[in-house]
Hints:
The chain is an alpha+beta fold. The chain has helices at 16-24, 117-148; strands at 2-12, 38-45, 53-60, 63-75, 79-84, 89-98, 103-114.
Amino acid sequence: MAEYRIEESAAIAAPPARVYGIVADYHAGHPRILPRQFHDLVVEKGGVGEGTVIRFQVTVLGRTATLRGHVTEPEPGRVLVESYPENGNVTTFIADPLEGGRATRMTISTVMRGRGGILGAVERWLFTRTLRPIYVEELGLLANVAAEAE
């Protein structure tokens, strides 16, 4: 099994606490930043930060999968992690302060487990080319939601 990382970052003109709060709120905030490829989000447990369990569907490369994620906060207020036990993938959201805390550098990073060899290389290439623009869109939606919250 090979691992690879897909990552995107953007500067968001809002304080880290506001940006992180949107990401960590799976009832009201997080659903508003999801691109159309992520849909049917259901909160199974909790709903804000650590201990939240979510289920949603993702449609990528013409295939739809149901994922179940467990949320942890290794650094509450800065780092939020969604782990998916079924496939071993992990998505991390990191909110770092910019401009003395008036803005945020938000990073979305997914470590994916895939096949090795030639098939794995093709899979990695396809998923990287597909997920990066989705993450760019998600970061743009997050910036819009954060601006509305002012």
